Structures are given as C-alpha cells and as structure tokens.
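Continuing the series of single-chain predictions for the mutant panel. This is the parent chain; the variants come on the following pages.
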Amino acid sequence: MFGLLFMLAFLIANLGLITSIFTSVIVVCYDEYYKHKSIFTMLETLRVRSVMQADKEYSSLVSLPPPVNGLLFFLAPFLMTSKSPELLNKAILWVAYLPLLLISFMIFAGWNFMLIPVCYIKMFFHKMIMIFVYSKSYRVSRADKFMLWIFFAVVGPFRLIGNVIMDLIAFVHHCTLQDLKKTRVQIREKQLAK
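Parent structure:
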C-alpha cells in the first residue's frame, strides 16, 4: 500500500514539475517573440511575398480559387512556355473571374432595380410635403415647388433609371480595374508612457 501511495505521489509531483517547466518555457519563448515581434512578422512576410505578390505575368498560377483552378491543368503549360505571358495571364484571369463578375453584377443590378420604386415613392411624397414646408435657405414660392413636384412626377422614373445605369457602369468599371495604385502600409508600435 505504501509503495502505491509513494508511486502516486511521485507521479503527481513529476506531472506538476513538468507542467511548470513547460509553462515557464512557453512564457520565456513568448516573451522573446514579443520583443522581436516586428522582425519575425517582417521575415514571415518576406518569406511568402514571392508567392503571394501579384505578378503581371504569372499571378494566375497562384490566385485562382479552387473550382476554377482546374483550368490551370490545361493552361499552365502554355502560360509557362509563352514568350509574352502577360497577355495569356490576363486572359486566364478574365476567364476565371468572369462568373464571379457576372453573379455580383446581377445581384447589384437586381437590387438597384428593386429600389427604384421605393426611391420614387419616397421622393414623390417628400417633394409633395416640401411644397408646404417653409425653408429659410431655399426661398421659392409654393407655385414653383408645385411645378417641381409635377416635373419630378413625370421625369423622376427616367432620372432614377439613368442613375441606376450610371451606377451599373461605375460598378463594372470598378470591378475591372487592373492598374491599382499600391499603398504603403507602415506600422508603428507606440510605446506606452506613464
């Protein structure tokens, strides 16, 4: 019985000792890491930069999402052996991301066209109420406000549709930008002072 209790006490003491040593090693390693955190972050960034950075010639090799990256099985040999890979790279990226562009465009267009009646009704009643509201900054007679309300009632739907078409053009233009300006990100660690 004594041997069993001695062995149990020995195992518990060793478990506590090993756990405390392991915890102290983790604390010391984390403290060392925290002192040089910015250096380790920079080294890790530099290590993966060559793979993750957008390349004009070969970025389609690393940036295609999983369902579409099967195209690379057929197109990667042509891309790797091409004398001008930039054009083929752009073509591969267009083919790969065209479904995403079409789906997001359809959602954006559908939502905009669904909002046209809501916006028209809101503006119609807003302009009608503005006939009777006195404004110090916008001094126009009620007859002029009434004519503006009638004008909006007739021209408003066409104006809203024109705004939606301009929004759709701007959406497609923004989605297809290729030469984006690169921004510099600089992280400064502020020291806490008393």
